[in-house]
Write a structure and sequence with these properties.
Elements (H helix, E strand, L loop, with lengths): L8 E7 L17 E7 H7 L4 H4 L3 E2 L14 E2 L5 H13 L1
Antiparallel strand pairs: 1-2, 3-4
């Protein structure tokens, strides 16, 4: 089959434990967050942070254990190559 024109799923970032403002996220496989599969349209509408962008992000607010992390809750290292690739992907498919 052919690929679909837009993404169907997204691996979003969920707090493993209570996280505090100012903490830096260590990324998937670390101690701060885990990934959860969500429909891409839901993730985009809610502004959920993709797990692949989480590493190195600094929290702007406290986050409860089990709570999804959104783009608005973090300061992202926007100079990273993965961030630039994600911006290109979003501009292309959405």
């Amino acid at each position: 089959g052919a690929p679909l024109p837009t993404p169907t799923a997204e691996c979003v970032t969920i707090a493993k434990r209570h996280l505090e403002e100012g903490e830096e996220i260590d990324g998937g496989g670390g101690y701060t967050v885990l990934g959860h599969c969500e429909k891409a349209t839901v993730a985009r509408t809610a502004g959920l942070l993709p797990l692949g962008l989480a590493q190195g992000a600094k929290l702007k607010t406290d986050v409860a254990a089990g709570e999804p992390i959104t783009y608005g809750m973090v300061e992202l290292p926007t100079d990273s190559f993965i961030w630039k690739l994600r911006q290109m992907q979003d501009a292309t498919v959405w």
